[in-house]
Specification:
alpha+beta; 5 helices; elongated
């Protein structure tokens, strides 16, 4: 289903959290920035919990044995040679023969560089499987949030932006703690959804992540309060 939530919808929901909010205190440019910042934070959370949820496959052309990191990538999860689908593993820059039997690259300064080993040398364009940054809005309306955003978590966005508004108005000790508590409840729901969005994945090896919510809170508005 297409996302229909605009930046203005998020701002309106945030302003409604307190009668003390004054829309005139926040220019449209600032409102746009805060919506984008808060959505970016929630995508960063997702990248740590379920990197395949807000994701992309970016095809990157080779440039003399190197491939620049896609600008939209929050985390690179897998590389494949586009020509044949062969996996290309990422090895440490200071241990380039860590996987001698697999096509390999190492990353340095946002650039992936080919390694030559017994498996050969990766070549041609590579497909980067990435957890990605959100598509940002440039206007409060008619721009809508990222097309992969889940609108059932709009309340989490409302609270995130409301925390930002309250902090700017100097209400950290007055209203922010209650907003953060509500936000953390929604964060727990959000993380739980991401963990179990596709529950029937079959794996040869058990590698389920253990998620510590406390480690994710600093990514969001107001931190721990």
């Amino acid at each position: 289903m297409a996302v229909t939530t605009t930046g203005q919808d998020i701002v309106n929901g945030a302003l409604a959290k307190s009668s003390k909010n004054e829309p005139g205190n926040f220019s449209p440019a600032e409102q746009i920035k805060r919506v984008n910042d808060r959505l970016s934070g929630l995508f960063e959370v997702a990248a740590r919990v379920n990197p395949g949820f807000f994701a992309e496959i970016a095809n990157v052309a080779e440039a003399a044995g190197t491939w620049p990191r896609p600008e939209s990538a929050l985390s690179v999860e897998r590389l494949e040679q586009n020509s044949d689908g062969a996996e290309v593993v990422v090895v440490p820059f200071d241990d380039r023969q860590a996987e001698p039997s697999k096509l390999s690259v190492y990353e340095w300064a946002h650039v992936f560089t080919a390694v030559t080993n017994s498996a050969g040398t990766p070549a041609g364009s590579l497909d980067f499987y990435n957890a990605r940054r959100p598509v940002l809005i440039t206007n409060l309306t008619p721009d809508t949030l990222d097309p992969l955003w889940r609108e059932d978590f709009n309340e989490l966005m409302h609270l995130e932006v409301a925390i930002e508004f309250a902090n700017k108005d100097g209400r950290q000790g007055e209203e922010t703690p209650a907003l953060i508590a509500d936000r953390n409840d929604w964060l727990t729901r959000y993380v739980g959804f991401l963990q179990h969005a596709t529950g029937n994945v079959r794996r040869r090896f058990g590698n389920k992540k253990v998620i510590n919510i406390e480690e994710l809170i600093p990514l969001l508005a107001g931190g721990r309060g």
